[in-house]
Amino acid sequence: MSGGTLQLFDIILFAAIAGFLLLRLRSVLGRRTGTEKRIDPFAPRPSPPPRPSPFTAPGAAPGPVIEGQATPVTEAPPPAPSKTPGAGAIKAVDPAFDEAAFLKGARGAFEIVVNAFAASDVAALRPLLAPDVLDSFAGAIKARGGAKLPSPLVTIKRAEIVESAVEGMTALVTVKIVSDQNGENHTVEEHVDHWTFSRRLKARDPNWTLIATKTPDAA
């Protein structure tokens, strides 16, 4: 057999082997049909839905987004709300007012504010506080150099409406909140706070704003 014939035979043999391997590879990997979904690693991921405000009723439009919320504290089951005369005054002009729903929101707001203040998170405080109250909290954070502290809140023991009224088109509700908080020397102390919330009646925004805080023995 001449050298040219041998070379031609080798080429035919290698081509046959290559064709066989190509058929086997296609049988293992399959063929593109044009319908495969290409994954783009740089494509933007859908953002999570905004978290509702503590005072947003189920089914209502979400309230302001509160970033950096701490893990919820352990809470005792809330007691049945007390029926105060002031609540009747609010319901006379706002039949949708629900004491139980309001107190649930007040407890949530208390937790968010206490945790955000400890974490020096002014952005988380802003949607819930009136401007003068926000300035007071921000000033206290600045006075301690912006240091982040562990949340002192252990348990919200109970919350109840102690006073409420309607002034013009503004509803005012004061809530007594009793909580256990970490004190000095790793002790747990009971705290009693009176927080007053306000809301413009018949406004589209269902959320309440914290306008005052005090302890019962404070002036």
Describe this structure in words.
There is one protein chain. This protein is of the alpha+beta class. The chain has a domain at 85-214: Nuclear Transport Factor 2, Chain: A, CATH 3.10.450. The chain contains five helices and four strands, in the order H-H-H-H-H-E-E-E-E. It has helices at residues 3-29, 85-93, 99-118, 122-125, 131-143, and strands at residues 153-167, 170-182, 188-200, 209-214. Strands 1-2-3-4 form a four-stranded antiparallel beta sheet. The longest helix has 27 residues, at 3-29. The radius of gyration is 32 Å and the shape is extended. Residues 25-45, 57-72 and 78-82 have low confidence and may be disordered.
Compile the SSE list and pairings.
Layout: H1 3-29, H2 85-93, H3 99-118, H4 122-125, H5 131-143, E1 153-167, E2 170-182, E3 188-200, E4 209-214
Antiparallel strand pairs: 1-2, 2-3, 3-4
Percent strand: 15-25%
- Please describe the biggest sheet, giving its number of strands, its sense, and whether it closes into a barrel: 4 strands, antiparallel
**How would you write the strand order of the largest sheet?**
1-2-3-4
CATH topological fold name of the domain at 85-214 = Nuclear Transport Factor 2, Chain: A
| Basic shape | extended
Structural class, by secondary structure, is alpha+beta
Primary descriptors:
219 residues, alpha+beta, Nuclear Transport Factor 2, Chain: A, 4-stranded antiparallel β-sheet, 4 strands, extended
Q: Could you provide a short overview of the structure?
A:
The chain is α+β, with helices and mostly antiparallel strands and 219 residues long.
